[in-house]
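User: I'm writing a tutorial on reading structure tokens. Could you give me a worked example: one chain, its sequence, then its tokens, then a sentence or two explaining what the tokens reveal?
Assistant: Sure. Here is the example chain.
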Amino acid sequence: MHLPDKTVERLSQYRRNLLICLGKGKEFIFSHEIAGLLHITPVQVRRDIMLIGYNGTLRKGYDVKELIDLIGKIIDTDNGQNVCILGLGNLGKAIIKYFSGKRPKLKIVIAFDKNPEKIGQLFAGIPVCHPNELSDKITELDISIGLITVPFDKATEAAEHLVNSGIKGILNFSSKPLNIADHVYLEEYDMVTSLEKVAYHTKNK
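And here are its predicted structure tokens:
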């Protein structure tokens, strides 16, 4: 099943919110309730959920547990995927701490940094190695995803290193736009752009 990027993004958001609902003991939920949690329309929710082949009932809505499980089957892999992070500065450390334990099927297993004081150490249980070991570690640990949190002027080099080491997907947290091979999936997150978007809408309130 090949889904549009925005649909996959919303499915992840649905699951995150549904897990919170399930934790509060909620067994069924209607599309308008999900829409309210994400500030989108019920029509969009119904379209996304129909797209993955799931139907609720008029009387009860969607079974929360069933919908969580189905989204998991679509987004996750059976054995999970291992992730590495390039750059163990403040941002890299914050991401490791935030992401720890959030998803059992996605696991940050190693970090890479050139700082000799960090190499050979553990951060939040994650070993830190020199980038020269990247290719070997990606193969050894079966890593398929790389996170880039290096400074602006190092991002292109980091991305090329990841691609040449056989990585399949990259999430770029640096502010440097990247141009990489088509066979590697690239997602770029720029906090400045996100903040400017909020500032624009705030200005027009």
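What the tokens reveal: The beta strands are 28-29, 62-63, 81-86, 106-112, 122-123, 126-129, 143-148, 169-172, 185-188. Helices lie at 5-23, 31-38, 42-51, 64-75, 90-99, 134-140, 155-164, 191-203.
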